[in-house]
Amino acid sequence: VAATQPSTNWHLKENAREHHTSKFSSEELIVRRGQAFTITFNGTEQPEKNLIFIAETGPKPSKATKTLATFDISSTVSKEGWSAVLQTTSSNSVSISISSPHNAVIGRYKLSVQSGSSSPATLGTFVLLFNPWSSGDDVFMPNKAECEEYVLEEFGIIFAGNKNRISSFGWNFGQFQGDILNICLSIMDRSLYYRQDPITDVSHRHDPRYLGRVLSAMVNANDDQGVVLGNWSGKYEGGKNPSSWTGSGEILQSWKKSGFKPVKYGQCWVFAAVLTTVLRCLGIPTRTITNFSSAHDADGNLRVDEYYDADGNHLERGADSVWNFHVWNESWFTRNDLGPSYSGWQVLDATPQEESGGIYQCGPASRYAIKEGEVDLDYDCPFVFAEVNADCMYWNYDSATGKKTLIFSKSTEIGDSISTKAVGRDDRVDVTRDYKYEEGSAKERDIYKKARKKLGLEDKFDPTAPTQDEIEQKPDISGKFKVAGSLEVGKDLNLLLVLENLQSDAKTVNVNMSAWSTLYTRRRVNEIWKNSISVTLAPKEEKQFPIKIKYPEYQQQLTTDKTIQVTALCHVEDGIQVLVQRNIILDNPALDIQVLGEAKVNKEVVVEVAFTNPIDTEVKDCVLQVEGSDLLQGVLELRIPPLKASEKSSTKFKLIPSEAGSKHLLVNFSCDKFADIKTFKMVNVIN
């Protein structure tokens, strides 16, 4: 006899509260593994007798792959598998508490019940997620405040700039908004791993290591038509400039709406922010990490080689590079494959830099393994180790003879001020010591040598015993660039080149100087200025040479990263060359946000954003974009009339907050002269 279709009460509110899933706005039950949830249903005859439940997920559920479970009513929760415990019964309905194992496959399940000899009746579907609140789960995080931040917080701060001037901007992760959970589930079903072998792929989805690696590949578009297409050219036609995004929601929604075509364009923080959204959504504690002076070691020798010609021009020779900053992720889970000391924070990097196992994916690399130089452990430890700890070699290259000479090397340049947002506060926390021992210490050098040895590199190049063309001679002069005055877009740039003669006889120096606009990856985009001077320095003399680059000279050439690299290659007669370099970041003018009145749930509140044009020409094409989880739906875009020189604009708009608590409003302002001026404001919403 076919059973009548039972009607199910999923107790959405109560279960969500117990399972820390209340922030999802869903009509479907969303629960975490290894923890009981309660459902009530009717329409089964003699409910308490011989009920069998079936939970199944994936394309071909089976017990062998742990994607199918059948279980009957028992008196206690099973330690190993799924279980159902009877709560209450009445004449026509039954309440059951269902528990999944700590290592259950995550994803969308179908739940059915079978009574006696009748065929199974579907109760409906639910989504099962990782459970960082449960001590048996691989992602268990004992500190509750950290669970709140790294799983439930929808606002983040990403650090950028360079190590001399760290800047930051807000990001709306928005992992609980709208359709994001469904989009995250479809990301898993579109990976190369799933396409090649869906049954095996789904059976591995109990493992945060596996999913972290798969999702690091899926967030970039390389190989698999993933979410975001990278672009580091400085030209972003046909898409959005990477610096214009303010949250992940718009990106993930666009990917789905376009029929899963990669969204244009991203750079490192976009990949890291989208991966944070996806992993937090699935319940894996995750944060973004910014590494300043980050090495991209393309040839795996834990060294970054940079080449210059005689005029001081940087040569695009070799694929190694140093970025002003690079953003990746850390996710928290155990490493049963490596052992307990390697558990905890794991590095994942979704930016497509180097292939790993034939596709653009990176990690998980245990942060502890990186610190200890254990570069032979899974996954991608040599690449991450180099990002924070490579040595820098600066070479002079003569293209006519093919001869290269070492200008100088630095072992303390890479991996500076490694930063992340504080738990529960909008502050920066420095985690450099978690990645490496103190720069310049004997321990740090020992770890570096240990890492090279594990990679079989100790013979090719030992920083302590260079080969003939790698012997560093002592320079006769030293140099540096000093900033004189403010560093603001719209103002002239005033610098001083300071040269000092270190010897007790006079020196003649020919100096070739240039300034280029660059991306944050230090890739040169446009030449702004160049000049050469010849100077004589008396014994031990220090001289200063003023450099002025006017705003009209750099305005057209500047990239949206607002970075300028100034270089001076100094040829000392009868001596060795000295390279002087500085990466400068210009500040945008400020935006001011005011919330006019109290912010209350479901009540309108007015926000005012003010901007003053700081330059003496008109700015036009002004656009304001605003977003914030629980403050407004999606992204609000407002066009603003042109602003004359020194004119102030004030724009007002309304919000209707949907939930109480401390929420963040993110604002991005752009016009033809200033790109992507970002700010955020905390809004305390009351009931």
From TrEMBL:
Top-level taxon: Eukaryota
Annotated Transglutaminase-like domain residues: 260-352
Cross-referenced Pfam families: Transglut_C (PF00927), Transglut_core (PF01841), Transglut_N (PF00868)
Name of the featured protein: protein-glutamine gamma-glutamyltransferase
Cofactor comment: Binds 1 Ca(2+) ion per subunit.
SUPFAM superfamilies the record matches: Cysteine proteinases, E set domains, Transglutaminase, two C-terminal domains
Gene name as annotated: Tgm3_0
Keyword Glycoprotein: no
Species name: Chaetops frenatus
Entry binding sites for Ca(2+): 389, 391, 439, 444
Reaction catalysed by this enzyme: L-glutaminyl-[protein] + L-lysyl-[protein] = [protein]-L-lysyl-N(6)-5-L-glutamyl-[protein] + NH4(+)
Enzyme Commission code: 2.3.2.13
Matches recorded under InterPro entries: Ig-like_fold, Ig_E-set, Papain-like_cys_pep_sf, Transglutaminase, Transglutaminase-like, Transglutaminase-like_sf, Transglutaminase_animal, Transglutaminase_AS
